[in-house]
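Quick question, first post here. What does this chain look like in 3D?
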Amino acid sequence: MKIAIIEYNLKLKEKFQKLFNDTDWDVDFYSNMNEIFTFLKRYDVIIADIEIHGIIKIMKFFADKTSAQLFLMGEYLNGYSEEFMNSKHIVGFIEKDKFENFVSEMKFVDSKLKIKKAVYKEERNCEFLGSYANEIRLKTI
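> Answer (accepted):
Ran it through. Tokens below.
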């Protein structure tokens, strides 16, 4: 799984790097939004700091340009507006002070992505014949 993290705080960046040392994921760090725009399609997950000016509009742009899972992270997520919390483009929220949950959340996302890719691969090998009474009929090609 390829992950992009957009974080300005160097201390938090170091914490993230330590967290990901024991995983097999490729993690890239960006210190500003301009750096990531040309590389959007290479990521499965994009995590951005909620404090970035105009982040909801930026995430909507990302959602139109990539199929990556989009996450916001912040220190106190319960203090943000409904616009942040109800955005259909955001898959999840990560609290910066709860790093112990972060890797397990990413493992769950990684599992979902692997299942999605496997299903997509198998769908390309089948031909849809029709459905009847909640039964789907497929023919292997």
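Residues 73 and 94 are 4 Å apart (CA to CA).
The chain has five helices and seven strands.
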